[in-house]
Amino acid sequence: MSDEIPSPAGARRPPEPSRDGLGGLPWESALYDAVRALEVRVVAAERERDELALSNSKLRRDLALCRERLENWRLRQAAWRRERDELLRGRP
């Protein structure tokens, strides 16, 4: 057996049989399976992070638009009230 530490990069190809015919240590396949499972989880987490970032960006844009519309509404409301007060006081 080799003294080299197995790397997860080597998990892509099956281990070569050694002189005694074994395909590798049993813990190697369990370790590689765990690494592959974690890689899948990382990809899923990155995809979810990207979707959340996009959603957050859209929500921030929508919030800014709503604030602008609310401010316009308040300005129109103030103008209507001024006009109504002027009409009630009898000023043209």
Describe this entry's structure for a reader.
The protein is mainly α and 92 residues long. It has one domain. The chain is built from one helix and no strands. The chain is rod-shaped, with a radius of gyration of 33 Å.
Give a quick precis of the structure.
With 92 residues, the chain is an all-alpha fold. The protein has 1 helix and no strands.
Report the order of strands and helices. Answer: H
Counting structural domains, the number is: 1
N-to-C span: 102 Å
Helix content: 55-70%
Shape: rod-shaped
Query: Helices and strands: which structural class?
Result: mainly alpha
For the biggest sheet, the summary is: none
Report the C-alpha radius of gyration, rounded.
33 Å
**Count of individual beta strands:** 0
Quickly count the helices. Answer: 1
| Low-pLDDT regions | none
Give the mean pLDDT: 85
β-strand percent reads under 5%
Descriptive terms for the model:
0% strand, 1 helix, 92 residues, mainly alpha
Structural topology:
Blueprint: H1 26-89
